[in-house]
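Journal club side-thread
Mid-discussion, someone asked how the predicted structure for our own chain would compare to the paper's figures. Pasting it here so we can look after the session.
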Amino acid sequence: MTCRTRPPRFWFLLPLAALTLTACQGWPGADAARNTPYPVLLPLEQVLAETTTPPDPAPALNARAAALRARAATLRAATP
């Protein structure tokens, strides 16, 4: 007869308990320098100033499509 150990019934709750205890003690995150118990939100102007809009891909796609159409027309004309 072999002796098998069984995991605790509520083993899946252990990480949740560890997170809860850490959160109750105060998370030493990025705002620890400001000595605040809660995260400090950035002003909206600063958030919007840091975002950049990606360039419009339409002109490059149109040029590529025109080049492919020209290549297809050349290949069609070359076949007898």
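Post-session note: The chain has one domain: 9-78.
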